[in-house]
Amino acid sequence: MNTLEEGTVAQIDFEKIHRAALSPQGLIPVVLQHADTKQVLFVGYANELALRETLASNKAVLWSASRDELWRKGETSGDELGLVEVRVNCEQNALLYLVRPVTGGVCHTTDASGAARPTCFYRKVRSPDELEFVDGFSASS
Fold first, then answer.
1. Strand 123-127 and strand 130-133: pairing?
2. Which residues of the chain fall below pLDDT 70?
């Protein structure tokens, strides 16, 4: 079991934004939200190339800060997200991708049945040290 993704001990990465800020790519955060349910699916990063590719393909494209490469969501997993709209915040330093899942799930993690989860936000913080699965979600087997 991957304790980071399936555990109940909080291991919150407070350094992720710092590492992304050091990227030579010029990254900004992207919130991906289901266009119909308004559920937040996950948070990623984009550079100018990722935004251009998203708009050109009508599919969610991001920049993988950990792999330092363009990330076309669903290219390897099959879990594509169709683009409905891109919004920018007031300071133009964050994006909102309104999307609809085309195939499969959303998250790279899977539930007990082996299906991709429909959101990456499947646990709630009980305390600074403890997480709990949200109703309707469970640890994978």
1. antiparallel
2. 1, 141
Query: So what's the pLDDT on residue 141?
Result: 67
Phi, psi of 46 (to 5 degrees): -135, 150
Q: Which residues contact 63 (CB under 8 A, 6 or more apart)?
A: 23, 25, 27, 44, 45, 46, 47, 49, 50, 69, 70, 71
Stated pTM of the model: 0.89
User: CA 44, 95, 137: angle at the middle one, nearest 5?
Assistant: 45
Strand 81-88: give its sheet, edge to edge. Answer: 40-46, 28-34, 95-101, 81-88
Beta bridge partners of 43: 31
The radius of gyration of the chain from alpha carbons, rounded to an integer in Å, stands at 15
Give the C-alpha separation, 108 to 42, whole Å: 11
Domains defined for the chain, CATH in brackets? 3-133 (3.10.20.810)
pLDDT of residue 115: 86
pLDDT of residue 1: 62
